[in-house]
Write a structure and sequence with these properties.
The protein is mostly helical and 133 residues long. Helices cover 62% and strands 0% of the residues. The protein is built from six helices and no strands. α1 crosses α5.
Length: 133
């Protein structure tokens, strides 16, 4: 097969999910030793919170992951309840994406308009609830 005809490794269906896995593993390794509950740590700031002063639907996610990695499940629940409940679904989607990629197939989840509406509605409701109460 000529060089121009050979498919690029970056175009392989497993390349993107594997890159996400490597980036997640690297971020997790750094986060494991960096307590986000303490100030002065080199961790990303929430742009929504910087601009508005309000908590976004994902605020507390970094602290939640840190607490989960250290076995502090009750504290993870307090950090971000909705994100904690949604995490298994997100992990299942990532696992399916990686599985299909490793089998040489591209996979992209699809959501109906109703599904998108539910996700956006939950995010907006969670944002309001956590900033009002």
């Amino acid at each position: 097969m000529a060089e121009a005809e050979r498919p690029s490794a970056l175009r392989h269906p497993a390349a993107a999910p594997l890159a996400v896995f490597v980036a997640g593993a690297a971020g997790s390794a750094y986060l494991y030793g960096t307590d986000p509950h303490q100030s002065g740590r080199l961790l990303p700031q929430c742009p929504f919170r910087l601009v508005t002063g309000l908590l976004c639907p994902a605020c507390g996610g970094t602290r939640m992951v840190y607490d989960l990695m250290h076995g502090h499940f009750a504290q993870a629940w307090l950090d971000n309840r909705v994100l904690l409940l949604a995490s298994p679904f997100a992990l299942a989607l990532l696992a399916r994406w990686a599985w299909e990629g490793l089998r040489g197939r591209s996979w992209r989840p699809t959501l109906s308009g109703r599904g998108i509406g539910v996700i956006l509605g939950v995010a907006v409701a969670w944002t309001v609830v956590r900033n009002v109460f």
